[in-house]
Design brief:
Layout: H1 4-29, H2 32-35, H3 54-75, H4 79-87, H5 89-122, H6 131-166, H7 174-177
Helix pairs in contact: 1-3, 1-6, 3-5, 5-6
Length: about 190
């Protein structure tokens, strides 16, 4: 059977790629037109994508990428840093768990926002007039759906990491599971992956 590091390493790499892709899609959705409030319906002038929501998407993408990147860096750090983290493993595992939980919740909320906005935009993405408004709506609709998929994938992957690392499914941290005392378990010296 594979060890935890064999499961978590690809998940962390996938999480970092999803975070980068969600940042790129966020930049694509919240472009010049949306940020200058030029994407609206006529005649009621209702904004279809609120520019204020861009903050949620940008912050969530950055938080997810930062946590994943630091996790990947920490597992390949120098011996002095790894020793420091192992000596303070409860503190670092608590911080890591809290950050992952917050990021997971943020990704879930951004999934909800992206689905909600794509539902609003989707009404105008097909068979609407004028034709350029329909094309723009379809363009935003596709990107918002892709954002919803990416954020939900990030949330699910972070829940898997939380389950594997902190909920006892082959737990990695010695203070929580006392894994080093079991004779049939070999504890790898990698920290979070």
């Amino acid at each position: 059977m594979f060890g935890v590091s064999y499961i978590l390493m690809p998940i962390n790499y996938t999480l970092s790629l999803c975070a980068i892709a969600s940042m790129c899609l966020t930049c694509s959705v919240f472009d010049f037109i949306v940020m200058n409030e030029m994407y609206y319906t006529v005649p009621d002038l209702r904004l279809l994508i609120l520019p204020e929501l861009s903050l949620w998407f940008y912050v969530t993408s950055v938080v997810c990428f930062t946590i994943t990147f630091i996790t990947l860096l920490a597992s390949n750090a120098r011996k002095g840093f790894r020793t420091f983290v192992e000596n303070h493993s409860q503190l670092f595992s608590l911080l890591h768990g809290i950050c992952l939980s917050v990021s997971c919740i943020l990704c879930g909320y951004c999934t909800f926002l992206a689905i909600q906005m794509s539902d609003t935009v989707g009404k105008y993405a097909f068979n609407s007039t004028p034709k350029h408004f329909e094309e723009a709506s379809h363009w935003y609709f596709i990107r918002l759906r892709a954002l919803a998929i990416l954020f939900s994938a990030e949330s699910i992957l972070q829940m898997i990491v939380l389950s594997v690392v902190y909920l006892g499914i082959e737990c990695r941290y010695q203070p929580f599971s006392k894994a080093s005392q079991k004779s049939d378990v070999v504890v790898d010296n990698r920290l979070f992956v």
